[in-house]
Amino acid sequence: MKLAAIDIGSNSIKLVVVEAGDSLDGGDSFAVLASEREVVRLGQETLVNRHIGEAATRRATECLKRFRAVAETHGAERIAAIATASVREANNAEEFISAVEQETGLRVEVLSGIEEARLVGLAASQGCAEKTAASLNIDIGGGSTEISIFRDGEPLKLVSIKLGAVGLTDGFIRSDPPTPDELDALRTEIRSSLESAARDLLEQTWSHATATSGTAVTIGSSLNSATIALSELKHLNAKLTSLTIAERRTIMHFAPQRADIIVAGGLVLEETMNALAIDSLRVCDWSLREGVIIDRLREWKRSAESVASVAGEQIDGVR
Predict the structure, then answer these.
(1) Residues 106 and 119 reside in one and the same domain
(2) Residue-wise pLDDT tens digits, 105-136
(3) Nearest to 142 by CA among 214, 220, 68, 212
């Protein structure tokens, strides 16, 4: 069976198309057939004004039309389209969902912050963690940050915080490069937002930590490492905050479209690692899309097993 998942995020929209084995034999394993990402900035201004504008809606629908065509070209039988903070926080979310369905034929499911944390954590625990050990994952998006602790594929703790690279950039950074006062205000907001969640999370234990999504992947690439050490992250953040957006683009040739939001994203990661006493973590390239795929495959497997069980009972009853 071929499936597709589309993640409508605050910064970018992402697609993955996969082929899964038989539901009863293949479990939740799959092979990736196609993977794409487009920066749409649905959360730009939306996360501050709580309203998705017409231009942002047009950008999103055009991208989603293309992604649906890609998925169908690869033979996807089912397409799951999910949206996160920018739609979750918008006062016209239903209008956006209706416009997308009318233009693309896709019905968008808006995730709660906790469900987003569960699905991202599921992906990280499945793709980048030891199955039997407790692992913590940090996912910094454009509009929110989700933190999860998993063991054996099951969540122990799920947290969603309204801290995202796009929203914080729009709300706190006005200068290029940012001024010391802007950076101080940004750090204060991040620390304040993390305080309660950090207390709850520190009541749990975990053996290793991972980080998912664009901010973590970009920072890992900047450090030329699959592991992010807190000491190296602090040094990198100090460098990035001293540069203009244009200067950041020249050194971030692998992700120039993130040059304007990487300061906020990097500081969220730094302050989260500080708050949770994490000295280093591993960058994980699985995230929400893969979590949706795994979750749908598990549902498919349970459904197939249920049908098989009922059929077996009926046959036994006839006998």
Answers:
(1) no
(2) 999 999 999 999 999 999 999 999 887 899 99
(3) 214
Do 193 and 163 touch, CB atoms closer than 8 A? yes
Residue range of the domain that includes 96: 2-110
Q: Considering 110, 135, 169, which residue would you say is the last residue of a domain? A: 110
Whether 217 maps to a domain, the answer reads: yes
- Structure-token match 């995230």, residue found: 287
Q: Which residues contact 73 (CB under 8 A, 6 or more apart)?
A: none
Looking at the DSSP assignment, which residues form a beta bridge with residue 161?
Answer: 145
Tell whether 135 and 275 lie within a shared domain. Answer: yes
* 23: pLDDT strictly greater than 50: no
Using CA atoms, how far residue 124 sits from 9, 32, 88, in Å, is 18, 16, 23
Neighbours of 259 (CB within 10 A): 20
Give me 218's structure tokens: 């970009």
pLDDT at 57 over 70: yes
**Mean pLDDT lowest for which of 58-62, 128-132, 152-156, 304-308?**
304-308
Place of tokens 């947290």: 159
Q: Do 127 and 271 sit in the same domain of this protein?
A: yes
259 and 133 part of one domain: yes
DSSP 28: T
Instruction: Check residue 25 and give its pLDDT.
Output: 46
* Half-sphere exposure at residue 31, Cβ-oriented, CA atoms within 13 angstroms: 7
pTM over 0.85? The answer is yes
